[in-house]
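just leaving the lab so this will be short. what follows is a protein written twice so to speak, once as letters and once as structure tokens for the fold. can you read through it and tell me how you think this chain folds. anything you notice is useful, everything is just below:
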Amino acid sequence: MAKLDRAVVERKLGYLNRYVRDLSQHVLLDDAGRRQAHYAIERLLQLLCETASDIALQFLKAQGDTLPASYREVFAALQRLDMLPEAMARDLIAACGMRNVLTHLYDEIDTDRVIAAVEPAVELYRAFAAWAIERLETGASAGH
């Protein structure tokens, strides 16, 4: 089993928390304001997924687990290892599904869905950050 690289996790948590703070500013906007800021919201949703996945990968590496090939698989792997609560894993997988649409333009972007994702994303990534901090404090070996 590899050792958890705390410095990487802490640096990535700093980014994650900054992106959550930035996205939180959009909570105050009405739908019209969010529509005007939709590109910023889209980018923050993308960065949040990618950064959370990077953090999750560090915990998987520390477990000596085979590293997944996609962002969504990272969270499923943590859940299979009984490290990440099932509901959180499910929500992170869904959030990364949205990230894939935003990044790769697989389909037309549904602006209504993007602007509706602000509050749930703030809540989800705050909870994930708390989960990661708890894992750091407990040595990353404890389950959820």
Observations:
- The mean pLDDT is 88.
